[in-house]
Specification:
Layout lengths: L1 E5 L4 E7 L6 E8 L4 H16 L8 E5 L5 H18 L2 E5 L1 H8 L6 E8 L2 E7 L10 E8 L1 H8 L4 E2 L1 H5 L1 H4 L12 H10 L30
Parallel strand pairs: 1-4, 4-5, 6-9
Antiparallel strand pairs: 1-2, 2-3, 6-7, 7-8
Helix pairs in contact: 1-2, 3-7
Length: 222
């Protein structure tokens, strides 16, 4: 069995799929930006139970590597690498923006924009879909303020949470676009080879909000 999950956004999304066909046997998705650490393990256990298998039945793990906020992304990647190490199976990383692009049903080139916080977006540009549904990334991923890249995304359909949050700045009219990566699409893409696989290392694009202390400050008068 193939277990796929992504924690690069506000959503915790999990799926169990047939490792050859990509047929999804169980899946779930919960949007809660502050509880990735609490939600992921129970969601994995529930998906495995629904699919009628145990962790020992897994032959591969697929995980979204971001870009995304430091804490949520770390939860998913540490879980994937730990499980793979214990079970002695392969873990495949996939750019989370690639997952979203693969979710689009449009036959045109598309752009993906997700919420990077700090009033910024993670973005990338993609070609139209090939016969197998795969899309080639043309530019990105990158992180910028929406107004600074509006001219780059102009004229393209834009999907992702960033497109919804910053529709005005990007000059978009968003209607029912996919906002978060889908573990079902992740599992299908890895099983069928229609999503590019990378090392399971975090794609942050910028430094975390939390920094190391510079040490205690002196209270003595200068």
């Amino acid at each position: 069995m193939l277990l796929g999950f992504d924690t690069s956004s506000a959503a915790v999304t999990v799926a169990v799929a047939d490792p050859i066909s990509g047929a999804v046997l169980a899946s779930s998705s919960t949007v809660d930006a502050l509880r990735h650490g609490e939600l992921l393990a129970p969601a994995i256990a529930e998906a495995l139970a629904t699919a009628g298998c145990t962790p020992r039945d897994l032959t591969r793990i697929a995980v979204g590597v971001g870009p995304g906020p430091f804490t949520g992304l770390r939860v998913g990647l540490v879980t994937a690498r730990t499980m793979a190490d214990v079970l002695e199976i392969e873990v495949a990383g996939v750019c989370s923006l690639d997952i979203l692009a693969r979710q689009s049903s449009l036959t045109l080139p598309v752009a993906v924009a997700t919420d990077a916080r700090r009033k910024e977006i993670y973005w990338a540009l993609y070609d139209g879909p090939a016969a197998d549904g795969s899309r080639r990334r043309l530019e990105g991923p990158a992180v910028d303020r929406p107004a600074d890249v509006a001219h780059v995304l102009a004229g393209l359909p834009v999907i992702g949470r960033g497109a919804v949050l910053y529709a005005e700045a990007l000059g978009l009219d968003t209607n029912d676009v996919p906002e978060y990566p889908s573990a079902e699409v992740l599992a299908l893409g890895v099983a069928t080879g229609t999503l590019p696989v990378v090392a399971p290392d975090p794609l942050y694009l910028r430094r975390p909000d939390v920094t190391m202390s510079g040490g205690p400050k002196s209270v003595l008068p200068k």
